[in-house]
Amino acid sequence: MNHEEPLPDGLLDAFWAYERALVSDDLDAMAALFAPGGSTLRADGSGLLVGHEEISEFRRVRGGAPARVVEEVRVQVIGPDAALVVAVTAPTRGGRGLQTQLWRRDEGRWAVHAAHVSAPPVTFDRSVWRAVGAPLLDATGHGVLDGESLAVKDLFAVGGFAIGAGVPTYRENAPIEPVDAAAVARLRAAGATVRGIAQNDQFAYSLAGDNDHFGTPVNAVVPAAYPGGSSSGPATAVALGEASIGLGTDTAGSIRVPASYQGLWGLRTTHGAVDTAGLMPLARDFDTVGLLTRTPDLLLRAASVLVPQDTATGFEAIDLAQSGLDEELDHVAEAFRVHQAYQAWQAHGSWLTAHPAAVVGGAAERFRVASRVTADEDRDARATLALARTTWNRRLGATVLRLPSASGPAPRLWAPADAVDAERRATVRLTCIAGVTGRPVVAAPFTVTPDGPVGTSHVGPPGSDLALIRWVSA
């Protein structure tokens, strides 16, 4: 304990009571020792939480502080009823952290009005990375991506590693891949290094970005929010600056949603335009290779390596309300869900049946639902999708359809499971348009709300991927 003047009565008692509550995860005690109202602040490396209610909700899903020893406490007395307390903490797992608190006394009761927590530096975040290096693999050539680095979604083959698909049991039994997936090989040949293999939702069957085995990657721009999935690891790695390019997939929005939630640029390529050799499927009729970057210039350079050159030069845009598609979306989105589920079970059902405990949480429930889709139900869904594909492509023609990339900002981690699932269904209602038509989409971070970014998707004509990026960025 270090201080230069007498301490106000009761301050240290309150400090140590709060420390005990942190380590024991006593939510009631922590709530009582934080100032009520909407101006109380708590900050850490992931961002700022404002207001007693938001801070309490965060604590409810975070869990208690790790076991630790308080090595040093320093107090700067501001006045008889205010003090700044800085504590050095030593977690038993190693490292050193800091905890800075502004305490004020009101009517004889001490409470924290602002707190900043600095955890020990993290050298490897298993919720983001499965394997990482500096780099993990070098570039194999030189070109437009010299100096850039890749976060590769754990569905792509990376030579010398097994595909893990976000499922530990699957990775443990998977063969070592002898060569890179086609997309990885082309990006490395153009000068990009592989920074690492990044985590994803289990078998990529989600849009939230959570993984019950490895944890939920941080959302780099919205504190205590879902990062968006299933390309959650690559998205977070790019948003944090740990890689410059995220290589992912987009079946029902797995590029567009994390781009929307974390303020990134994203490309869902024209269906079939990029070689999918070495890529684990989810639903082949919708699966596409996708990219995530922080700038449109890099998105264009990376895309130019993967997709054929196009000749389109300019577009006219319409909004969803102008397109006439909105009235048909509920019916078609349900057909999309059914056919995606049927194909997902065809791809992974045998393995899941043999390993019934390997996939858990929301993904497990979706696969259970998928296992019950019959061939007749899938036939009817395919008929609906075929009609919609023909009708929608004729209606859209050469125009660009502009619509939100997700149905709203990233849900907070404390949102009820049914609310997160409702968000997912509402988002698929929007994202299925590209899946049904096979069209490319550029997701851009054009809109920021008080609750976080909401990306804008631009659905272009088939084969217009590069021109679409140029047009949107202009």
Task: Summarize this structure as a short list of keywords or feature phrases.
ten-stranded mixed beta sheet, 35% helix, alpha/beta
Describe the structure.
With 474 residues, the chain is an alpha/beta fold. It has 14 helices and 17 strands. The chain has helices spanning 11-24, 27-33, 52-62, 168-173, 182-189, 232-239, 256-262, 296-306, 320-323, 329-354, 361-371, 375-396, 417-437, 465-473, and strands spanning 2-3, 41-44, 47-50, 68-79, 82-91, 97-106, 109-118, 129-137, 149-153, 193-198, 245-250, 265-268, 288-293, 317-319, 400-404, 441-449, 452-459. The strands form 2 sheets. Strands 8-10-9-11-13-12-16-17-15-14 form a 10-stranded mixed β-sheet, sandwiched between helices. The chain has a 7-stranded mixed β-sheet with strand order 1-4-5-6-7-2-3, with helices on one face. Strand 6 and strand 7 (109-118) form a beta hairpin. Helix 1 (11-24) packs antiparallel against helix 2 (27-33) and helix 10 packs across helix 11. The longest helix is centred in the C-terminal third of the chain and has 26 residues, at 329-354. The termini are far apart.
SS class: alpha/beta
Radius of gyration: 24 Å
Please, how many helices? 14
Mean pLDDT: 96
Spatial order of the strands in the main sheet?
8-10-9-11-13-12-16-17-15-14
